[in-house]
From TrEMBL:
Listed Pfam families: Peptidase_M15_4
Top-rank taxon: Bacteria
Ranges for domain Peptidase M15C: 57-121
Protein name, per record: M15 family metallopeptidase
InterPro entries linked: Peptidase_M15C
Length: 127
């Protein structure tokens, strides 16, 4: 079973760091759960709106620099937010990242404000 990025997902990867795009592609190719990209590069205006709404706590989001993506799990083409799906997608991301030697951080591993749909390049290697 191998899924492919939709045209819409590809459009949303515009401006995202090529190393992260490669991880997204490799993760999807090996994932047992289909997913789409919901957001990549973000404008400062949108980030400010998200902080105001309480959806984000930082004005220094990795999305502003193209170092982060958000995904949504798809079951039979329908978006699902069930938490366990994101753990399984994260497994695919972590294996893909290790294969490509591109360190990433999963928002689901954060201890505060866990963010299951969020993946970003590790700041230590990609400042
Ligand atoms: Zn995010």
């Amino acid at each position: 079973m191998s899924f492919r990025l939709s045209t819409r997902s590809r459009t949303r990867l515009k401006g995202v760091h090529p190393a992260l795009v490669a991880v997204v592609e490799a993760a999807l190719a090996r994932s047992c759960i289909d997913f789409m990209v919901t957001e990549g590069l973000r404008t400062p205006e949108r980030q400010a709106a998200l902080v105001k709404a309480g959806a984000s706590r930082t004005q220094r989001s990795r999305h502003l620099t193209g170092h982060a993506v958000d995904v949504a799990a798809l079951i039979d083409g329908q978006v699902r937010w069930d938490w366990p799906l994101y753990g399984r997608i994260a497994e695919a991301f972590k294996v893909a990242a290790a294969d490509l030697k591109t360190p990433i951080v999963w928002g689901g591993d954060w201890t505060s404000l866990r963010d299951g749909p969020h993946f970003e390049l590790d700041r230590k290697v990609f400042p």
